[in-house]
Specification:
By secondary structure, the protein is α/β, with parallel strands linked by helices. It has one domain: Vaccinia Virus protein VP39 (Rossmann fold, 3-Layer(aba) Sandwich), CATH 3.40.50. Helix content is about 30%, strand content about 25%. The chain is built from 8 helices and 9 strands. The protein has a 7-stranded mixed β-sheet with strand order 5-4-3-6-7-9-8, with helices on both faces. Helix 4 links the parallel strand 4 and strand 5. The radius of gyration is 17 Å and the shape is globular.
């Protein structure tokens, strides 16, 4: 099967490959409670963006909101919901494969009447072609699956092809923010960014605004130290 994926370069080049892209996740389809399933069915048509389709006009998706951020892998959704509540002037696209997490955020969107949050249930690499070059103010990647075994590392979401595609879609002055509590993953990100001339930055102090999620709390309880890495898109 022939697939097209976004590749590096500020022109948003699309490359055709005879093989499907490497997935950095395993689909997590679990049953929803009857109440949450009802909310999901009602809210999904209004607030879910299709994974595949034509280029999105973000000014139409988020009218009056010039800053749009892509949140990749929001998990259970509590961090995304917390940020959405305090940043109503920021358009937010959350991407996640975990259906219960998507349903939980949809529930929050409905409850609060939010118009500045949209979700994508699926693979971010399949969704990226819908985003124009230089269209994002930021990309957030908090505590991605570290894929610690050597035979699994090619599945890490931060890898050369994905990094290039994300940078393509960051506007000048936009930021890529990665948080991890796996030291090897932090070194892995820094090493890859060193080969990306359109990014500059590195380790920063933990921002006060970044939510403390249950996943991070488990890491702290296990003795792991979170690291925040922030990189700015330059010319």
């Amino acid at each position: 099967m022939v697939r097209t994926i976004a590749a590096g370069g500020s022109n948003g080049l699309v490359v055709t490959t005879p093989h499907p892209p490497i997935r950095s996740f395993r689909p997590r389809r679990r049953g929803l409670s009857p109440l949450r399933a009802e909310v999901y069915e009602r809210a999904a048509p209004r607030h879910l963006l299709q994974v595949e389709g034509p280029l999105l006009e973000l000014a139409t998706v988020f009218p009056g909101l010039p800053d749009v951020v892509l949140d990749i892998g929001f998990g259970a959704g509590e961090g995304l919901v917390e940020l959405a509540a305090v940043r109503p002037d920021e358009g937010l696209i959350g991407v996640e494969v975990h259906t219960p997490g998507v349903a939980r955020v949809l529930e929050a969107i409905e409850r609060n009447g939010w118009q500045h949050v949209r979700l994508v249930e699926g693979d971010v690499m399949e969704f990226l072609p819908r985003l124009a070059p230089c269209s994002l103010a930021g990309v957030r990647l908090f505590f991605p699956d570290p894929w610690l075994k050597n035979k699994q590392r090619h599945r890490r979401i931060v890898r050369p092809d994905v990094l290039a595609a994300l940078v393509d879609r960051l506007r000048i002055g936009g930021h890529l923010h990665v948080a991890t509590d796996i030291a090897d993953y932090g070194r892995h990100v820094v090493a890859l960014v060193a080969d990306e001339p359109r990014l500059r930055g590195g380790r920063i102090d933990r921002p006060e605004w970044r939510p403390l999620t249950r996943f991070e709390q488990r890491g702290l309880a296990a003795g792991r130290t979170p690291v925040d890495l922030s990189f700015e898109r330059i010319r």
